[in-house]
Amino acid sequence: MDPLLKRIREQERHISRRGALRAAACGFGALGLADLLSAAPAVNSTTDPLAPKLPHFPAKAKRVIFLFMHGGVSHVDSFDPKERLYRDNGKPLPIKRPLAFAEGEPGALVKPLWDYKNYGQSGIPVSDLFPHIGSCADDLCVIRSMCGEGVDHGAALLQTFTGMSNVVRPSMGSWVVYGLGTENKNLPGYVTIKPALSHGGSKNWGSAFLPGAYQGTAIGNAGMSVQDIKGEPIEYLSQKNLSSDQQRYELDMLQSINRRHAEIRHNDRNLEARIQSFELAFRMQAQAPEAFEVEKESEATKKLYGLDDEVTRDFGWQCLLARRLAERDVRYIQCTHSYKWDQHSDILEKHPANAKEVDKPIAGLLTDLKARGLLKDTLVIWAGEFGRTPVSQAGAAAGQKFGRDHDPYGYSIWMAGGGVKGGYIYGATDDIGYFAVEDRMHIHDFHATVLHLMGLDHTRLTYNYSGRDFRLTDVAGVVATKIIA
Amino acid sequence: MNSQFVAERAQNLAKQILDNASLDSAGRVRALYQKILNRQAMPLEIDGSLSYIEGFQKRGASLQDAWTSFSRILLASNEYIYLD
Predict the structure, then answer these.
(1) Domain total of chain B
(2) Do A287 and A304 sit in the same domain of this protein?
(3) Does B63 touch chain A (CB under 8 A)?
(4) A407: Cβ–Cβ under 8 A, 6 or more apart, which residues?
(5) pLDDT-derived band of residue A1, with 50, 70 and 90 as boundaries?
(6) Residue A3's pLDDT is what?
């Protein structure tokens, strides 16, 4: 044994209460561990928490790109046309209104505000808000029966991303990287581009009680312009004051001090995560800048994503960066369009303006992924935190410009690629589009399904914390096997 | 570790111990351990630190830069960041 280490151990034996507790608890701890190991799926024995791991069963998707529409897109105006709303336009809500975000009486039923067209061989109806996405209809698996419990944005975002809104839980991306590790050692396994700092903020890409190595790496935030982000996509990644040689030398010294410190503390996972994070950051200094060079793409590609147009440039840059990260095997990538979609009023002006910013970039992403052969094992998810009510928000009658309230009880999302059926519609809402009634996909079911597509059994992907096992889906979650190709 | 804030704090610490004429090199290591980690440096740590300072200077850096680097290491160490 290293003489210094020996001396520190001797010292510690006298002074550390925690060390004494650990030693005393060791018998029980070892029993628990033996149990765990015999039941555990194939786990890589290396200490690198991000080393690739085998899935529970063959995966359909190797990676996820989540396109998040922060604020809540109106589903009856985009992917879920309701015959009855045309017929009963202007009539009162025929059911008792559930818990709502808006105060006061609900307004009248309002028919879909944009015309629908049937697209592709599948004939999936998509409204005129999203003509470009419509052109990809045969690749879309539209889920019209999403539901959750969050009637406000904070609760709905947290539930969408972590499964729970009342307690802090790891985000879906963290669970995925915990389960599968990542194949590119020079980039983070989990990247979130321009995430929203509101409505749960970093909890929505945090790892909570999972080791820190599994948290998302934020590229800028929703409040920053792409121009600002380009200068330093990953904050504090570059070391401007040292040569590469000096930096490596400094890092080696730091790591040897940290290793010794960790060894004395029985290689605590959080200490290990921090040690690994320095190494990842050092490798990233060499590799990441290249991944972020979106400008190096061909003019045709940039145009495909709408980088030549001011309206689509921001989200186009996010989508194109997402593709570059996907082809470099980043496991879980999120793009956020924030925080635009919350049209309690002005829906007639603002929903189309928002849609214009994302429609072409998203279609560009799907087209490009497909052309490069990446769509088949990349699961693309498009979702907001909820939909919007089929009734207008009260107040619209009082002269305010018309809008719709939050509807978490039944709304539409879609997936594409990654082993889901293309040109397919799953589930249905009631005849006015307020509640999901057929093949309901609760957020827990959605999580179970995404994990399943990644080759992970949501009931077996557990982490022991605070004396019990936890999972992304808590005690719920049913895999929607119908949507799997 | 790469932020301007940490760079400035490390520079200040290095300047403080270099300005103190009563300290020899080992004394400087002891002072930094005491200041940052609130404990005594052990003899082996002192030896390792001094050879680090020497090595850093050999990589084309000034004495001040070497001590800045060493201060930054202690500020970035897990021992400093986490309570036991």
Answers:
(1) 1
(2) no
(3) no
(4) A72, A75, A386, A387, A388, A389, A390, A434
(5) low
(6) 57
**CA–CA dist A424, A124 (Å, integer):** 8
- Interface probe, candidates B40, B42, B65, B84, chain A, greatest A C-beta count within 10 A: B84
Q: Are residues A369 and A439 in the same domain?
A: yes
For chain B, how big is the Rg over CA atoms in Å? 12
Q: Give the structural domain span for A271.
A: 234-291
Could you list the residue range(s) of the whole structural domain that residue B62 is in?
Answer: 4-81
Pairwise CB contact (< 8 Å): B42 & A4: yes
Nearest chain B Cα to A267, which residue? B78
Domain count, chain A: 3
- Which residues of A are less than 8 Å from B55 in CB distance? 249
What pLDDT, on a 0 to 100 scale, did the predictor assign at position A394? 66
- Looking at beta carbons, which residues of chain B come within 8 Å of A254? 73, 76-77
**Domain assignment of residue A430, yes or no:** yes
Q: What is the pLDDT of residues B32-78, one digit of tens each?
A: 999 999 999 999 999 999 999 999 999 999 999 999 999 999 999 99
Q: Helix or strand or coil: residue A117?
A: strand
Both A203 and A247 in a single domain?
no
Position A49 confidence tier, pLDDT thresholds 50, 70, 90: confident
Which runs of E-coded beta strand occur in A273-403? 332-337, 378-383, 387-392
Tokens of A395: 């107040």
Same-domain status, A33 and A53: no
Contacts A246 to B, Cβ<8 Å:
56, 59-61, 69
